[in-house]
């Protein structure tokens, strides 16, 4: 391959808000390690079996050589000054009174910060958050804090020793802050409210009478005392009034269910937790005033966000920033580094470094005090069913989440919680509403599970309670109501492909942990006096993707047949770099030899996005489609389990185009060499006959050809040797027509190809690096109404949990668990296994261990660390006994499904249901701790001595509120 202008070999740029944006090149060993050059290894791949022995970063991980932005200092970065400044944020621990400044007089003179930055400095200099993060990057004096832990000042020291000593003296010192009048917490309207109403047709497969997808999602007409208000229902009125009329009718039916019907009403609570990412939030920024360049090293799952919003933030300041140089890095985050405000705080810090690079990095106390948390949710469900058949008829859900002090992704989490509540079940009629409030709690964001853990976990606990009342096997009740292929979800959309939750249920029902649970309980209880054995089950299906997915990918061949892959996705510990490399094998015969992730600049394919893909009108979209370089969304962050299905789509399509436009015609040319058309002439060899066998291409009995041979011929003939692609998915793939031989319509909206070595003429308009953009002639974007579908891509999993409960202490011992996952074709089975094990461990933590108080006494006071916050250890997760299996795909062409989030969910209700089986106690507040079990047991014992009283199945169970 000729020398190309890659991100890692020289600076590339684009311009945002008048500021040039660069992605930096490595210059020394440390930086090369950070940017994947020296620490990634080509994957040992067996052509005969197609198995990969270990991931690209395996050697670096096990030898401790894998570096993160947290490891980098100014002297590691080429061209940076060697002097490194260090900074900390001064944060508030109260949020009910007026902030009136701070006092650092307790610090001796030699430990005073070299630079102190306050809100007054930011206002003077025009420094503010991007709009997504709201106001008050630093809280000004005279205001009540919006939330606990809010930052009021940035303190910078020019050397580490003084910084370390000063920071130690300032920690846990509430008297540093001056307070004024007590005002009470700031009150605001909720961050979001969504309501989805559906009334099905005569059968599950007939058209709906009303649904969000067909008609409209419902939004409040306003808020009164911060509570959502709805229009008056009118069956003959506007669409929103019709929806409320249907909802009112369902509510009346739930109040008076009629003979032979049951209505179950329960309330559940899912707590706030810390994502506990091992890499703390951090960044290192240097503003070189002489050149107007700001350099930033930062941990993020969404580098494209910084590349877009960072320049806009800097352009509004008075510092004269002319260019922004980004260093995207490896990270780990579980969602906590997706649209996290911290990189923008580091940009602010860099502006005030006085020429020195400024490192701002949380310690663990600060991480608890400021990092994004999982939303707590309270869910109130009413479910009507037929007593005789056990068939569900109406589901009403009222969900209330706490989004904390900044909006972040609360509207999206709010929406997803409502659309996920149905889990694996079909409901002929449903009314599901979700509200996420603004509060003085810490910001809640895109933590793993994203609202679905909360709402689906509650649904699964409810189903078990219903099964107990009906005296039905819990899996049998699930099978009677399981969502089948072609049915509509609670938004009225038909999900993609075959729905396989029923297969998961049937396999789970046959597992020995389930079939032998009564026998095992009797034997265990007899052998362990004072302990109670139980088995529980949970089964869910979760969406993957966001409804606005997009990505770039490049797959390119060198003359000697080496494969290079570039991608916008970030490697954050999931093995994304490995799986994307493996995707290339389908079309190119082996995995990519080189993988670069976190790419933000794509001059080869200059696409442009102008509007919000979720909020734009149909008229706006229609007005743009005539521009062949326009797209509704530029690039997605690494989130929403999007790598296996969505990111792989880009890698696969780029590799496929290399094959169809380069390698296949090159193979035909090689096979046709010789008099009379060579070995090919007597045969019929179609493209669909092509097969890679042990790394060589053959078809219809023709001579196997190596990738080196094919690449050399493609270069010689000026065929495609590189492909850059872009896609957009709004719960449906965009398709476009391109003037290509054999590929007139593709599931892409942007394409650039390199022909030969890029120096000769070829199809398309020249752009960069020898590429030519092949402009689409027509494009077919999914209509914006498809946003109302909510979700259509699902993966399913069922988990059986085996527990023992000590009645004297309340301690729960997780003895064993088994999961059955459905995720299509696995790209790298070992990565699926690791995600399954890690996700289940996180779910166990949520079910039994992890908890953060939302307000006072919670992490906002700055005193929380792992001495107070309990993560599950190996002994807590049945590490040596746990098992899992994956359903085989339907065919070799099944797409891989996103599964990294869904695997953590069913273990939560499975454990709760197992505890109920063991003790007879239904605990509906997570986490289920020993003290809650003891309190519930005491209430149960006390109730045995009291006279019975009448209850109704429609009565809210008061135990849920305990």
Question: What brief labels describe this structure?
Answer:
962 residues; seven-stranded mixed beta sheet; 35 strands; globular; disordered C terminus
Strand percentage lies at 15-25%
Number of helices: 22
Unreliable segments of 5+ consecutive residues: 1-12, 25-30, 949-962
The value of Rg in angstroms is 29 Å
What is the molecular shape?
globular
Average pLDDT across residues? 92
Q: Strands across the major sheet, in which order?
A: 1-2-14-13-12-15-3-6-5
Cα end-to-end separation: 68 Å
The total beta strand count reads: 35
- Most strands sheet: 9 strands, mixed
Helix content: 25-40%
Structural class, judged by helices and strands? alpha+beta
Describe the structure.
There is one protein chain. The protein contains 22 helices and 35 strands. By secondary structure, it is α+β, with helices and mostly antiparallel strands. It has a nine-stranded mixed beta sheet. The chain has a seven-stranded mixed beta sheet with strand order 22-21-20-26-29-31-30. A five-stranded mixed beta sheet has the order 8-18-17-16-11, with helices on both faces. The longest helix has 29 residues, at 643-671.
């Amino acid at each position: 391959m000729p020398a190309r202008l890659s991100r890692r070999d020289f600076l590339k740029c684009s311009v945002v808000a008048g500021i040039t944006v660069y992605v930096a090149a490595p210059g020394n060993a440390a930086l090369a390690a950070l940017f994947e050059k020296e620490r990634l290894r080509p994957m040992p791949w067996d052509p005969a079996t197609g198995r990969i022995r270990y991931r690209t970063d395996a050697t670096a991980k096990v030898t401790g050589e894998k570096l993160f932005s947290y490891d980098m200092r100014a002297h590691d970065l080429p061209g940076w000054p060697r002097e490194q400044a260090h900074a900390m944020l001064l944060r508030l621990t109260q949020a009910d009174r007026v902030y009136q400044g701070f006092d650092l007089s307790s610090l001796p003179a030699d430990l005073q910060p070299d630079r102190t930055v306050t809100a007054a400095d930011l206002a003077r200099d025009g420094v503010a958050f991007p709009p997504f993060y709201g106001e008050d990057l630093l809280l000004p004096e005279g205001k009540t804090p919006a939330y606990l832990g809010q930052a009021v000042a940035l303190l910078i020291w020019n050397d580490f020793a003084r910084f370390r000593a000063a920071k130690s003296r300032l920690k846990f010192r509430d008297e540093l802050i001056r307070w004024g009048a007590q005002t009470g917490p700031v009150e605001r309207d909720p961050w979001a409210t969504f309501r989805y109403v559906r009334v099905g047709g005569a059968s599950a497969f007939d058209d709906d009478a009303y649904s969000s997808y067909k008609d409209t999602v419902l939004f409040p007409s306003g808020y009164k005392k911060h509570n959502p208000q709805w229009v008056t229902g009118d069956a003959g009125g506007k669409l929103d009034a019709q929806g409320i009329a249907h909802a009112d009718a369902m509510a009346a039916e739930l109040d008076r269910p009629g003979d032979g019907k049951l209505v179950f009403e329960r309330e559940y609570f899912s707590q706030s937790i810390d994502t506990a990412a091992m890499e703390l939030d951090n960044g290192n920024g240097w503003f070189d005033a002489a050149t107007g360049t700001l350099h930033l090293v930062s941990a993020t799952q969404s580098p494209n966000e910084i590349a877009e919003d960072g320049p806009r933030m800097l352009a509004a300041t008075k510092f004269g920033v002319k260019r922004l140089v980004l260093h995207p890095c490896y990270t780990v985050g579980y969602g906590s580094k997706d649209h996290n405000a911290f990189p923008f705080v580091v940009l602010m810090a860099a502006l005030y470094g006085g020429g020195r690079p400024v490192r701002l990095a949380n310690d663990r106390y600060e991480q608890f005090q400021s990092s994004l948390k999982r939303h707590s949710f309270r869910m109130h469900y009413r479910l009507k069913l037929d007593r005789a058949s056990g068939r569900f008829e109406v589901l009403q859900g009222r969900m209330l989440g706490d989004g904390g002090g900044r909006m972040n992704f609360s509207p999206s989490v709010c929406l997803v919680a409502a659309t996920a509540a149905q889990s694996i079940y079909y409901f002929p009629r449903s009314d599901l509403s979700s509200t996420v409030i603004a509060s003085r709690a810490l910001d809640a964001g895109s933590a793993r599970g994203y609202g679905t853990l909360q709402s689906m976990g509650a649904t699964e606990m409810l189903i078990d309670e219903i099964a107990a009342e009906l005296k039905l096997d819990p899996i049998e009740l699930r099978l009677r109501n399981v969502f089948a292929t072609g049915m509509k979800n609670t938004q009225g959309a038909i999900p993609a492909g075959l729905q396989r939750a029923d297969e998961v249920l049937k396999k789970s029902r046959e597992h020995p942990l389930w079939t032998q649970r009564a026998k095992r309980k009797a034997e265990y209880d007899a052998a362990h006096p004072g302990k109670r054995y139980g088995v529980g089950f949970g089964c869910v299906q979760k969406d993957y993707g966001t409804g606005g997915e997009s990505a770039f990918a490049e797959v390119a061949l060198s003359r000697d047949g080496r494969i290079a892959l570039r991608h916008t996705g970030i490697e954050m510990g999931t093995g994304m770099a490995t799986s994307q490399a493996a995707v290339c094998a389908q079309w190119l015969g082996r995995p990519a030899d080189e993988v670069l992730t976190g790419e933000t600049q794509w001059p080869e394919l200059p696409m442009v996005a102008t509007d919000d893909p979720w909020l734009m009108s149909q008229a706006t979209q229609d007005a743009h489609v005539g521009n062949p370089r326009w797209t509704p969304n530029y690039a997605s962050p690494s989130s929403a389990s999007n790598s296996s299905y969505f990111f792989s789509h880009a890698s696969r399509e780029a590799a496929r185009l290399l094959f169809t436009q380069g390698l296949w015609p090159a193979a035909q040319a090689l096979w046709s060499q010789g008099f009379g058309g060579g070995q090919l002439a007597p045969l019929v060899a179609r493209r669909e006959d092509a097969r890679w066998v042990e790394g060589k291409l053959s078809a219809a009995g023709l001579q196997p050809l190596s990738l080196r041979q094919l690449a050399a011929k493609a270069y010689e003939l000026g065929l495609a040797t590189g492909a850059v692609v872009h896609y957009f998915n709004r719960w449906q793939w965009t398709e476009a027509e391109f003037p290509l031989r054999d590929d007139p319509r593709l599931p892409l909206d942007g394409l650039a190809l390199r022909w030969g070595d890029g120096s000769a003429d070829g199809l398309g308009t020249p752009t960069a690096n020898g590429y030519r953009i092949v402009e689409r002639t027509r494009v077919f974007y999914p209509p914006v109404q498809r946003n109302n579908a909510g979700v259509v891509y699902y993966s399913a999993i069922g988990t059986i949990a085996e527990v023992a409960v000590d009645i004297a202490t309340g301690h729960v011992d997780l003895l064993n668990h088994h999961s059955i996952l459905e995720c299509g074709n696995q790209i790298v089975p070992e990565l699926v296994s690791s995600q399954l094990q890690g996700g289940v461990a996180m779910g166990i933590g949520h079910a039994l261990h992890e908890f953060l108080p939302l307000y006072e006494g919670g992490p906002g006071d700055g005193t929380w660390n792992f001495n107070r916050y309990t993560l599950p250890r190996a002994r807590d997760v049945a590490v040596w006994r746990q098992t899992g299996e994956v359903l085989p795909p339907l065919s070799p062409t099944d797409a891989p499904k996103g599964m990294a989030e869904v695997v953590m969910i069913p273990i939560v209700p499975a454990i709760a249901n197992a505890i109920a089986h063991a003790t007879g106690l239904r605990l509906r507040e997570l986490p289920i701790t020993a003290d809650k079990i003891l309190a519930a047991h005491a209430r149960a014992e006390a109730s045995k001595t009291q006279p019975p009283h009448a209850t109704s199945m429609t009565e809210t169970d008061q135990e849920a509120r305990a």
